[in-house]
Sequence to fold (192 residues):
Amino acid sequence: MKYNDKTWPVVLGISGASGAIYGREIFDRLLGAGVPLHVVITPTGKGILKAELGLETEYFHKPGVVVHDNSRYDSPIASGSFPTSGMVVAPCSMGCLARIAAGASTDLLERAADVHIKERRPLVLVPRETPLSDIHLENMLRLSRAGVVILPAMPGFTHSPGTFDDLAAFIAGRVLDQLKIPQDFAPRYGGG
Fold:
């Protein structure tokens, strides 16, 4: 299935939580759907991509993709005047989530998320942490009340996944659903 919005991109942030496979899978699926992308990766996120998947940031330098330097606040995604269809942070560390919840951005990824909240655009956070403390849960509740979708990396098993990629595809499918981007790769309960 192909994305039918011809102009506005999706912002993908990859922060420093374990679960780099989710960020890569969401990137691949959005790109495959023809969605224009803006990508921003934290320094810790870069290290985890390398450690968990053997990926360098060059992986994300593809046609239709703009990769931003996370330290540059003068990037277009730092401004509400730059139109987007939404933003995803996957994986989203608890530190990143807490700073977004507090409106205390310390880098471009967090500022872009703050912009999506203030502009009331879709923002999907994919936290990857366990167990969750009261503080984590309170931060997630605060964000949910502000209209942010909290989509934890909790893949389903009713479709009998056989690989890690199958598990990551399940989460990627739920993310695309939240962004109203058609997808037919993630199984739906009852085969629908």
